[in-house]
Amino acid sequence: MNDPVIEKIMQLRNQLRNKIVIPVHHYQNQAVSSIADFLGDSYKLAVDCSKSDAEYIVFCGVLFMAESADILKKPFQKVIIPASNADCPMANMADLTSVNEIFNKITTLAGTDVVPIVYMNSYADLKAFCGERGGSVCTSSNAHVIMNHYLKQGKKVLFFPDANLGMNTAFKLGLNHKNMILTKKLDNYNDEQVILWDGFCPIHKRFTPGDISVLKANYPGIKIIVHPECPEEVTAQADAIGSTEFILNTINASPAGSIWGVGTETIFVDKLFAANQNKTIVPLKVSECINMKKTTTELVLNSLININEHIASNGTIPLMNIISVPEIYKKDAAAALNKMIDIVTNGLK
Ligand code: SF4
Question: Would 4-87+292-318 and 207-283 be classified into the same CATH topology?
């Protein structure tokens, strides 16, 4: 049955032609995903958005992602988020004042170069903090490349806000607990190379080793694949660990009959299930991100109607839900985002 809201979106999209582009994060629901110009995880969306020439970027994701699009956009472009209250609890776990305090403390303690690395899941002021200090943004698909880039130069890294991603990334690079310390334990600092902010994603923190045991008992031959935002007790028992894009590609490429237990956001797991009917795909447990669910096709339609009216009125009707990163952060935040892209694509030394 045709969905009247999606039909209206398609009509408006035709009318607006190449003036709009709709990037959609993998965790968005199926209806919103069906209207995507491109789908991706936060890294892929940041890169794809930066290549678009559409005047209006209608970003279906959460606020920090739309901010990144705003930082990397061309001067004539505008970024609009249909769900203006789509926040991220993890991004809210680090603030500029606290990060600055910890950075100064660790720089004094370490007595050497400390470079800040901020996960994409953060707000523009913290990305700017990194850019200003020669640091970089990272995503779950490239955190190991970014962290390794600095460690091999003999630098120490302050990684924030997600401790699990930082820890799992350090493990991937061959480090162990002796090489890392949480910022809340800095009074016991003992020359650790990786300093981890104590933030987490509530969605991925819910998974436990017990969830894996249950699946292994119920599905003989099952393989466990999890996101690196999961706690180390979970990643230690997984057959594969990787970003959303990695999970997508790995499961899509697996042979018919494969059995997967997936430790990441539930809406995304449901979409994997729908797209891989010849495989068995089960979540470790149900764990939905309510903020990702805030974007609906109705809200996207509202944004397109507003853009259309804005254009037809020669700008008299204002645009709603525009993302506008303060100018004081833009240059340095762009430096941190571009450093990530340079390190990943060009192997920046
Ligand atoms: S899944 Fe986790 S990190 Fe992603 S938006 Fe939701 S709370 Fe934030």
Answer: yes
Q: Could you give the 3-state DSSP secondary structure of residue 299?
A: helix
Q: What is the pLDDT of residue 149?
A: 96
CB 94, CB 58: distance < 8 Å: no
Classify residue 152 by its DSSP letter: T
Nearest CA to ligand 1 atom 3: 201
Per the model's pLDDT, the better-predicted residue between 347 and 333 turns out to be 333
| Atom in ligand 1 nearest the alpha carbon of residue 90 | 8
Gap from CA of 81 to ligand 1 centroid (Å): 16
- Determine the distance separating the centroid of ligand 1 and the alpha carbon of 200, expressed in angstroms: 9
Task: Give me the architecture of the 4-87+292-318 domain, per CATH.
Answer: 3-Layer(aba) Sandwich (3.40)
> Residues 9-37: pLDDT tens digits?
999 999 998 999 999 999 999 999 999 99
Ligand 1 atom 5 nearest Cα: 88
Question: In a 10 Å sphere around its CB, with 0-12 CB exposed, 13-18 middle and 19+ buried, how is residue 208 labelled?
Answer: middle
Using pLDDT thresholds of 50, 70 and 90, give the confidence band for residue 144: very high
Q: Is the beta carbon of 88 within 6 A of some atom in ligand 1?
A: yes
Q: What is the ipTM of this complex?
A: 0.99
Q: Is the CB of 90 under 6 A from ligand 1?
A: yes
Domain ranges of the chain: 4-87+292-318, 91-200+334-346, 207-283
- Residue minimizing CA distance to atom 8 of ligand 1: 88
Q: Residue 47: CB within 6 Å of ligand 1?
A: no
Give just the sign of the alpha carbon dihedral 62, 63, 67, 68.
negative
How far is the centre of ligand 1, averaged over its atoms, from the C-alpha of 11 (Å)? 32
CA 245 to CA 275: how far, in whole Å?
A: 14
Give the Å distance between the CA of 88 and the centre of ligand 1.
5
Superfamily of domain 91-200+334-346: NadA-like (3.40.50.10800)
Give the right CATH number for 207-283 from 3.40.50.720, 3.10.180.10, 3.40.50.10800, 3.10.310.10. Answer: 3.40.50.10800
Spacing of C-alpha 186 from chain mean position: 27
Measured distance CA(41)–CA(140) in Å, rounded: 9
